[in-house]
Amino acid sequence: MRARILRAVASRSRATHAIVLALVLVLVLVLTLADLGAAAAGASAAPLESAVTTSSGAWVVLPMGQITNESNTFWQLVHAAPGSSSWSSATPPGVADNGGIVAGTAGGAVLVGILPNGRLRFSPLSLSAGDGASWSALLLPRGLAALPDALAYGTDPVRGDRRALAVTRSAQVIGATGNFASWRTVVTARTLRRVSARCRVVGFDAVALEPSGAPLVATGCAGGGAVGLFASTGGAWRSIGPVLRGSLARASTSMLRLETDGSTVTALISAARGRHRSLVVLWGTSAGWSVSTPFPLPSSARVHATSVESGGSTAVLVRKTRGMLAARITPGGSWLRLPAPPAHTVALAQPATSVSIAAAPLDAFTVSGAVLDVYGLTPSGTRWFKTQSIRVPLAYGSSG
Fold this sequence. Notes:
Elements: H1 2-42, E1 50-54, E2 57-65, E3 73-80, E4 88-89, E5 101-106, E6 109-114, E7 123-128, E8 136-140, E9 151-155, E10 162-167, E11 173-177, E12 184-187, H2 189-195, E13 201-209, E14 215-221, E15 228-233, E16 236-239, E17 252-261, E18 264-273, E19 276-285, E20 288-291, E21 295-296, E22 302-308, E23 314-319, E24 324-329, E25 336-337, E26 345-349, E27 363-368, E28 371-377, E29 384-391
Parallel strand pairs: 1-22
Antiparallel strand pairs: 1-2, 2-3, 3-4, 5-6, 6-7, 7-8, 9-10, 10-11, 11-12, 13-14, 14-15, 15-16, 17-18, 18-19, 19-20, 19-21, 22-23, 23-24, 24-25, 26-27, 27-28, 28-29
């Protein structure tokens, strides 16, 4: 009898232990999913509306047409030549771009990728060596992710061959050289998780190429304030992103923009902690980073467009519950709130002028159907005024 009682007690103890262990595992899973959810939902999604300015020209990606109807939305690539404040449409012809486009620049060249939409399941590529007046057709056999820096382009400084990196919508980073006929996996999220103890990697956010041709890959990080930025040297990956301090020390982060200008990297970060979100810009290299002051986002606001300009100056367009706001920051400076943008503003960009960063102009782009209007700031920086109007031929109904 005593033996049976002891066995019953032991059996009940094991059952209780198993239940407690199961509850602990469930709690750990819930907390982990909560962290990942905070990283995914708390950080701002990177908008396709974007601009990049180099000494070789300025490029803007924006939508036109009936923007609330994807089948009649036509994404455009707008260009301004070096030293000019005049913009013109340079969109590659011949491919339905209703799903969006992304662009990677290097020197005076630009590589454009079309996002999958409708029956288009892969991403056609177009390369222009100049101002977008002529294009060469290339192919990415997979679909690009809907991220402004999902595509990077450059040339090897020694061999001179072309190189490209891409983030696919299946959450892979792939690369190609030469004529881009063969693409291969460059790195996996699992590899990056192994080399970073601080960043709990959450997806791929952006890619870039250093002047040496070496790849840079950005990811989201769940909690801890780490910035997910990784570089490869000789095939070995390492974490080069800093850890944010102060009020953002435990924030989840995501990369909105990643651009290289010479040896300097400019990165626009969205940092979220609970309901509080801020934007932070990084400038520097793996040897050291300069971190901007945070720019707190209003409640329920979202980043609508971004611009990374020559020298690292960065501008953002933020949509609030009512209206929009624009802000800009230069390396080593503070965030500057700009006058309220004109109604229907969809993008901001700096023309590729030769003036100093501090005095560089900034343009706002508004869309009304097939009409693209450009507004500049007055010299005092107190109001916007129209500088240009462009009518772009759009083939409504063509995607049906």
